């Protein structure tokens, strides 16, 4: 499954790029964000084109379904990929801005910053007497102090800008192929209804497997994974049902032949 | 603009829910993740339905555009919202699993965990002699020690599960209304070409404003904000162009009237 693949690849990237920390640590660190991206990205890629084509199938024309589906695939994968790329770039910019600001604070009002370090540790019930050593250590090295503030005060992870393109491409490709799968039956069958049911079958299967693998990858137990698979399937069903209903409803209100002139 | 609004609301949520830290700190902390979500979410909501409807407009029927657009709006906003909700729930689950594991490690091999704390500080050039006080402080309180490891070793932020529903709803609503805007002209004009150009105008305007506000909210300077606005506009243009091109291409290959029978 692409999402979990992405997950592991990115974990490896994190491992390579972060100097410190044992694999198991970094794997954890990499998860949180990527799990989210992978789930939203792939679930969309699979669900939206499926639901859209299901909705359009109520018009009774396989070709219309294919045209609408292709329009969605290109629109979706491009905006998804470019969106992810731009988001990564914006994040990097944001980090840069905050880092400059933090460095200025360390330079211009070190006492206030010193206090902030003490406050960070006080959140964990550590008295100033106990954290004094760390504070002294940070004061001795401005770069390390700034890095510490970025990590522990602002909790901003240094973005891997060189990854922005790759992230964008991965997201676009995942979305495109995820979205292509539910459309295949409409290429294969002349009969839209047959195509629709085959498409539902294919998508349901993938959604279940995806939901299951997804949950396992995030470290859930099998029972939770099954529940997650069911949930993922429900998302697809609800989205497709709503889409089918609205198209059929609007369409029966209007005469379809009048529309397609 | 909904995304920046979402951004601030969520920031306020974070402020309310996190016991420690000054407003400016938490604002920072909240940004990173939310910026990304807001950008991807809203950009998609606006871009995909716009690009899809632009693509379908090449078929020459406003009604087809509206049907395809509505199918996409419902499919997109539902899968987006439910996807975001499930992602939040999965994250919470993931956090829970990791926390249990961390607590077990603290209980069962405290010396190894102690070492990991020292290693964290060594990453910032702080010697063991200097960080000893903090380590002793953590050892005195298991809960705090586990929280410290979650924050500074795994760098996992405690998910706000009660927010999962709200996040999902916000995302779905944002997507829906973002996607509705480019469709309005197709309701208004009988002539698809007029509708298309009006839709392009409306979307371009919103994308530019959105891109600009977005960049300012993330703390960029005006010049960067302008550049960001241009980028956001380009995404929309590329996606719509590709969608229009593919539909027109496939459509001219096939006879449209044959298709819509």
Mean pLDDT of chain A: 77
User: Biggest interface: chains and residue counts?
Assistant: A-B, 109 and 109 residues
Unreliable stretches of chain A, pLDDT < 50, 5 or more residues? 1-32
Backbone shape of chain A: elongated
Helix content of chain A: over 70%
Radius of gyration of chain A: 25 Å
In terms of quaternary structure, the protein is: homodimer
* Helix/strand order of chain A, N-terminal first: HHHHHHHHHHH
Distance between the termini of chain A: 42 Å
Q: Report the sheet-strand fraction of chain A.
A: under 5%
Number of helices of chain A: 11
The total of beta strands of chain A comes to: 0
Helical/strand content category of chain A = mainly alpha
Largest sheet of chain A: none
Main location (chains A, B): membrane
Transmembrane segments (chains A, B): 164-189, 195-213, 225-247
Biased composition (Basic and acidic residues) (chains A, B): 10-30
Pfam families (chains A, B): VIT1 (PF01988)
